[in-house]
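Student:
Attend to each token:
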Amino acid sequence: MTDPRFDDGPLPDKRQVAASFSRAAESYDSVAALQRAVGNELLRRLPDGFAPRHWLDLGCGTGYFSRALAERFPESEGLALDIAEGMLRHARPQGGARRFVAGDAEHLPLAGATQQLIFSSLAVQWCSDFAAVLAEARRVLQPGGIFAFSSLCVGTLQELRDSWHAVDGFVHVNRFRRLEDYQDLCAASGLLPLDLDSQPQVLHFPDLRSLTHELKALGAHNLNPGRPGGLTGRARILALVDAYERFRQPQGLPATYQVVYGVLQKED
């Protein structure tokens, strides 16, 4: 069942998500400063002394954090999984994990009780059924295992959303769950929340074009049902630029990301 609790409606179709991120595989790392910062913060939140022998990088993307996990846990054996085949083709030659597998976080192609760590940074926001992701994590983890995830919640790219709202009524910005929904779903998952909160990350851009270029290079541009088709007219773009300029700060145009961090444990 699709989780209905989003700010404006359902998430994008996962086939479109997979295709978009596959196309972005070559350009992703060049503009992924936020993604690296968030993933490193998630690594920092792992329990002290925790040293899994088997880990899964869920939504591995280009494999950046598969390599980071292999470096942090040199005696371990890793598995990297992503729904986007293009990302896996990019990640495999760079190593890190022992295997790179195409798969869906809501239906993991793994046997139960095989992993001691599931690490997932900025991937599960694309999963419409987060309860299924949690259930799969609980199934695949061994007792005492950790599911560490970062995601995005309502308030992300709010400046861009508000600017488009001043121009027209179409959906132009990706939708995200509320923090309260993450809290409720985690509480009901059967996993023990060790850490669950939200922190804003604000990026600054010299102009609107720089922001939209980065979103496209990441594969994270607008994929929502209800988005406008065809080219955006020049008059609407100029109106959007004018609306966004009202948010300008001394550092540039802000783009706020509301990042959710969760560290959950499967109890013995």
